[in-house]
Write a structure and sequence with these properties.
313 residues; alpha/beta; TIM Barrel; eight-stranded parallel beta sheet; two-stranded antiparallel sheet; 10 helices; 12% strand
Length: 313
């Protein structure tokens, strides 16, 4: 495993982050076995959110941390201020409400990295920065950032913080993957993948703001299950999402390249896709929702995988 640093967090942060959408109190033994397994492989960072499983993901993660006595060894990342059917909810009131709910579920005392799950460009950055700094000063969070915020909004937020002697965003969580989404899988999502994301990637390369990439493996596009001639056979929410967002001719060309490299190097296509991510000149961390410890073990091997020169942008 390799590790990086996030300003405000006094622990190293594993470059591979275990996504916790799949853990629950209903499958407690499986969830604990999974978390135990990935932690044993050096993964000490875990990503959850206020909306995952109606809060059950946070409860399950927090229970595992307490029962294993790992509070000082793991990095807890959670997210709030997700929109509902009626409002975008990126306000000081909603941030505080969601944060207090997350703290009550996790029971970890403080949250290492608190991310705003979405942005609302109609809300000025000033009140958001002020509110997050209040929670920082109160010891509820150790660092904060934005998920699905544009580089322009992140820059504006951090410029406001610097001008007012406040702490700014310590991290960002957009989509970044070798597979370029043709549309956002969910409303309000931001991707910095592909040619259209080059300007944003340049900004991240210049600032070295930590990037926590969600869907870094494109929801399973690299599994080999999705081919040019079988897309009509898929059903089920997750598979249909991959077909809708990632199954383009451009991505199949990228898949052809990844399969060629994988065959030459004797590794999996997913490992090639992850190696591409870590080849970028960014301060990048990959969110991967591994279903088994073996998947995490495979991902760890990608950290040292060297790629040929003809890498797609």
């Amino acid at each position: 495993m390799k590790y990086g640093r996030v300003a405000g967090i006094d622990k190293p942060v594993s470059r591979l982050v275990q996504g916790c959408t799949g853990i629950s109190s209903r499958e407690l033994q499986y969830s604990f076995d999974l978390l135990d397994g990935v932690f044993a492989l050096g993964c000490n960072a875990f990503d959850t959110a206020q909306i995952y499983g109606g809060g059950d993901s946070e409860r399950t993660l927090g229970r595992w941390i307490r029962e294993r006595g790992l509070g000082d060894k793991v990095v807890v990342i959670t997210k709030g201020a997700h929109p509902n059917a009626d409002r975008r909810r990126v306000t000081p009131f909603d941030i505080a409400s969601d944060l207090h709910d997350s703290l009550a579920r996790l029971k970890t005392g403080a949250i290492d990295l608190y991310l705003l799950h979405r942005d609302d460009p109609d809300v000025e950055v000033g009140p958001i920065i002020e509110a997050l700094n209040e929670h920082l000063a109160a010891g509820r969070i150790r660092a904060f950032g934005g998920s699905n915020w544009t580089a322009e909004r992140l820059a504006a937020a951090n410029e406001y913080a610097a001008a007012h002697g406040l702490t700014g965003f310590a991290a960002s969580s957009p989509n970044l993957s070798l597979a370029v989404p043709k549309e956002a899988p969910w409303g309000g999502c931001i991707s910095i993948s592909g040619p259209d994301g080059q300007a944003d990637r340049n900004w991240y390369a210049q600032t070295q703001l930590p990037v926590f990439s969600w869907s870094s493996l494109a929801g399973g596009f690299w599994s080999g299950r999705f081919r040019r001639d079988n897309l009509a056979t898929f059903s089920g929410y997750a598979d249909e999402l991959v077909v809708r967002c990632y199954c383009t001719q451009e991505n199949f060309r990228r898949l052809d390249w990844a399969e060629k490299v994988a065959q030459e190097k004797g590794v999996s296509v997913a490992q090639v896709a992850l190696a591409w991510l870590f080849r970028q000149p960014l301060n990048v961390f990959a969110l991967t929702a591994c279903r088994t410890p073996q998947e995490m073990a495979d991902n760890v091997q990608a950290l040292d995988l060297e790629l040929p020169a003809d890498v797609p942008e």
